[in-house]
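Section 5: illustrative case.
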């Protein structure tokens, strides 16, 4: 179960980064102003980075035990 959680966490992190890129380049969101798209994309990138940092610190704590 622990292995599944680790892989699922990485999949969610990749999903956040992919959604950020999709929001920036997709013609589907052409009706939104560019500033709004950039702000939401930055939020998605930062949150994905935050989750990645939490995952790394959790892994280091488990390795040190």
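Designed sequence:
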């Amino acid at each position: 179960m622990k292995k599944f959680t680790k892989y699922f966490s990485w999949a969610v992190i990749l999903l956040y980064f992919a959604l950020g890129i999709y929001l920036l380049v997709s013609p589907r969101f052409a009706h939104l102003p560019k500033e709004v798209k950039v702000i939401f994309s930055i939020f998605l990138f930062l949150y994905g980075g935050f989750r990645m940092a939490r995952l790394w610190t959790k892994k280091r704590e488990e390795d040190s035990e």
